[in-house]
Design brief:
This protein has ten helices and no strands. The protein starts with a helix and ends with a helix. It has helices spanning 2-20, 27-42, 46-67, 77-116, 119-125, 130-134, 136-166, 173-181, 186-212, 218-247. The protein has one domain (24-247). It is elongated, with a radius of gyration of 21 Å. By secondary structure, it is an all-alpha fold. Helix 3 (46-67) packs across helix 7 (136-166), helix 4 packs across helix 8 and helix 9 packs antiparallel against helix 10.
């Protein structure tokens, strides 16, 4: 029974994505919505990304220094480990899990409210492809903004690590700098960006599906928002496992 329900949900998702990626009927309206979503989904998320990344970078640096580094290890290990964690996992995977909660619930609740107030039905009656009109700008906007958010996250995490050196005295700044530069692999930055592009699509498309498919009243909108966050997070973790294996071979 569960398998059949999951298969039906997946089929409905594919049908909706087929409608979504149809060519916009009016490009001017599409770009207007696209710019709006860039601001709402991307620019408005910069603050929380910077704040969380700054403190996570600082905490990682402190934890590595206090719990892992020993007199038997080089002093730059703390900086090296902090960099690898920020590049390979936190700034792409963990940050996208956080954005799934903020952005995903926003998308699902917005579309769900439009569904229960019959705004989507009104668009359909007017002959507008509501899926393409409402969902496509959200997907393209989040996929566009996510590389910038990842870059900001990496930078904020490194600044947070330096804050522990300058303000906390946990590690010398020169040791941290050497560790951050030690055997730097540019490909790891691209790995984070590539993974985040997949995660951005998952967040925007899955959240849009649950919001767009709401049936009922305001209670169902809340359930759709919760389902969007939960299923987006599960798919992000699953795809992270596969993408990490493929990109870091």
């Amino acid at each position: 029974m569960l398998f059949k329900k999951s298969l039906n949900t997946f089929g409905s998702y594919l049908v909706l994505m087929g409608k979504t990626f149809a060519r916009p009927e009016r490009m001017r309206n599409f770009f207007k919505q696209y710019v709006k979503e860039l601001s709402q989904l991307g620019v408005d998320s910069i603050g929380i990304v910077l704040l969380i990344s700054f403190f996570i970078g600082a905490v990682i640096c402190i934890q590595i220094k206090l719990n892992i580094q020993s007199p038997w290890m080089p002093r730059f290990v703390t900086g090296y480990t902090t960099r690898e964690i920020m590049l390979l996992e936190f700034s792409s995977s963990i940050m996208c899990l956080i954005l799934a909660g903020k952005v995903g619930s926003n998308i699902a609740s917005e579309l769900g409210t439009m569904r229960v107030t019959q705004q989507i039905d009104a668009l359909e009656i007017m002959g507008v492809n509501s899926a393409s009109f409402l969902i496509l700008p959200k997907i393209t906007a989040l996929v566009t903004m996510i590389p910038f958010l990842v870059t900001f996250s990496i930078a904020a995490g490194i600044i947070g690590a330096y804050a522990t050196a300058w303000l906390g005295g946990v590690i010398k700044a020169e040791d941290l700098t050497y560790g951050l530069q030690y055997e730097f692999t540019e490909w790891f930055v691209w790995c984070g960006i590539i993974k985040s592009l997949f995660f951005a699509f998952i967040i925007s498309s899955v959240s849009s599906f649950y919001g767009y498919s709401v049936e009922g009243g305001s209670i169902e909108v809340g359930k759709a928002s919760t389902n969007a966050v939960v299923h987006s997070s599960i798919l992000i973790l699953f795809s992270d496992l596969i993408l990490t294996q493929l990109l870091t071979k």
